[in-house]
């Protein structure tokens, strides 16, 4: 049966995306947290996290996400990314205790990952639900 | 060796994406192109880039293109079926019919995308539904095309059909949604 409707609500897509959803979340955080030792890192894991928003949009294309709040979270993480390295590097904590280098890099990866995930997700959602200038876009 | 094969495949998919007539197909070819690029990055020992390319190139960007396409000029052709069910043979026959081919070519030349939706509602209900830009119905042996009165694109389409002599069994009926109501 060829159904040419672009609704994205077919039961196959719903079931498969529902099954893959937790694994995508897991893969995103795995890539972020192990980014220091294995391929991956903040940006790559963050983009995997952003596909969670995309998957939700594909299954359920309804604009009920509060993208303003997501944007605020993203800005808070962006500020943390700027503040934490500045504070740690200028106080010399990381250079004085070499054992802290691993946890420090993992923490930074985590911050970058969440920031990129929310940022890309909000960008995609706003693009998909864009209604015209002045309605959803006040940056 | 496998690198060369991947590169050749990438070239093939790039050419397919450029030369395919349907934009939606081009987007899918681009996604495959991105996936091959990610594989190539793995072969060239750049797994970090491969992850980023796979996720962004074939995930996010594909969806962005599809979302952009959805809000662009997509002409929806509603085909009204007489029955409650739509058998595959009927779908095949309609999609291969010369009328649909002419309509598709017409819109491709104007860089519009067409999609065909098979609907089981009565014709009057399909006419007032704003989701369909063009309604096709089979009445006996004739194919009847219902077009909006105010759409100038449809006037051109009617002219194209008149130029084709073989399309004489196709009738055009122009309507205004208010009159149907």
Topology:
The complex is a heterodimer of chains A (139) and B (181).
Chain A: H1 11-33, H2 42-59, H3 67-91, H4 93-96, H5 101-128
Chain B: H1 2-19, H2 23-43, H3 47-70, E1 74-80, H4 88-96, H5 98-109, E2 113-119, H6 123-128, E3 134-139, E4 142-148, H7 152-163, E5 170-175, H8 177-180
Parallel strand pairs in B: 1-2, 1-3, 4-5
Antiparallel strand pairs in B: 3-4
**Structural class of the helices, strands and pairings of chain B?**
alpha/beta
Given the structure, what is the number of helices of chain A?
5
Number of strands of chain B: 5
Largest sheet of chain B: 5 strands, mixed
What is the radius of gyration of chain B? 21 Å
Tertiary shape of chain B: elongated
| Oligomeric organization of the protein chains | heterodimer
Molecular shape of chain A? elongated
Low-pLDDT residue spans of chain B: none
Number of domains of chain B: 2
* Percentage of residues in helical conformation of chain B: 55-70%
Bin the strand percentage of chain B: 15-25%
Radius of gyration of chain A: 18 Å
End-to-end C-alpha gap of chain B: 66 Å
Strand content of chain A: under 5%
Return the average pLDDT of chain A rounded to an integer: 81
CATH architecture of the largest domain in chain B: 3-Layer(aba) Sandwich
How far apart are the first and last residues' alpha carbons of chain A, in Å? 44 Å
Residue-averaged pLDDT of chain B: 81
3D structure, described in words:
The complex is a heterodimer of chains A (139) and B (181). Chain A is mainly alpha-helical and 139 residues long. Chain A has one domain. Helices cover 71% and strands 0% of the residues of chain A. Chain A has five helices and no strands. Chain A has helices at 11-33, 42-59, 67-91, 93-96, 101-128. In chain A, helix 1 (11-33) packs antiparallel against helix 2, helix 1 (11-33) packs antiparallel against helix 5 (101-128) and helix 3 (67-91) packs antiparallel against helix 5. Residues 1-8 and 133-139 of chain A have low confidence and may be disordered. Chain B has a five-stranded mixed sheet. The mean pLDDT of chain B is 81. Chain B has two domains: 2-70; 74-180, D-Maltodextrin-Binding Protein, domain 2 (3-Layer(aba) Sandwich), CATH 3.40.190. Chain B has 181 residues and is of the alpha/beta class. The N and C termini of chain B lie far apart (66 Å). In chain B, helix 7 (152-163) links the parallel strand 4 (142-148) and strand 5. Chain B contains eight helices and five strands. Chain A binds chain B through residues 1-6, 31, 39-41, 43-44, 47-48, 50-51, 54, 57-58, 120, 124, 127-128, 130, and chain B through 47-48, 50-52, 55-56, 59-60, 63-64, 67-68, 70-71, 86, 88, 91, 95, 115-118.
């Amino acid at each position: 049966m060829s159904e040419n409707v672009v609704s994205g609500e077919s039961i196959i897509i719903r079931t498969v995306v529902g099954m893959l959803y937790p694994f995508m979340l897991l893969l995103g955080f795995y890539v972020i947290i192990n980014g220091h030792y294995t391929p991956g890192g903040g940006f790559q894991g963050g983009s995997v996290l952003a596909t969670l928003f995309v998957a939700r949009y594909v299954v359920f294309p309804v604009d009920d996400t509060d993208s303003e709040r997501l944007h605020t979270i993203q800005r808070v993480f962006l500020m943390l990314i700027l503040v934490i390295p500045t504070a740690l590097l200028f106080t010399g904590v990381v250079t004085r205790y070499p054992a802290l280098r691993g946890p420090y890099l993992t923490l930074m990866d985590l911050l970058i990952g969440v920031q990129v995930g929310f940022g890309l997700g909000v960008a995609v959602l706003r693009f998909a639900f864009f209604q015209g200038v002045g309605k959803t876009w006040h940056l | 060796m496998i690198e060369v094969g991947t590169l050749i495949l990438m070239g093939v998919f790039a050419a397919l994406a450029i030369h395919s007539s349907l934009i939606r197909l081009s987007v899918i070819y681009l996604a495959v192109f991105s996936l091959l690029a990610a594989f190539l990055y793995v072969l060239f020992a750049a797994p970090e880039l491969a992850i980023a390319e796979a996720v962004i190139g074939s995930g996010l960007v594909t969806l962005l293109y599809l979302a952009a396409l959805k809000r662009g000029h997509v002409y929806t052709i509603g085909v009204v079926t007489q029955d409650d069910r739509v058998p595959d043979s009927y779908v095949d026959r309609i999609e291969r019919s010369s009328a649909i081919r002419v309509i598709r070519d017409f819109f491709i030349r104007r860089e519009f995308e067409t999609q065909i939706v098979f609907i089981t509602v009565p014709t009057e209900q399909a006419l007032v539904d704003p989701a369909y830009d063009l309604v096709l119905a089979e009445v006996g042996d004739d194919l009847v095309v219902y077009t909006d009165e105010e759409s100038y694109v449809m006037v051109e389409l009617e002219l194209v059909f008149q130029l084709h002599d073989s399309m004489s069994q196709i009738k055009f009926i122009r309507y205004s949604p208010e009159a149907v109501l």
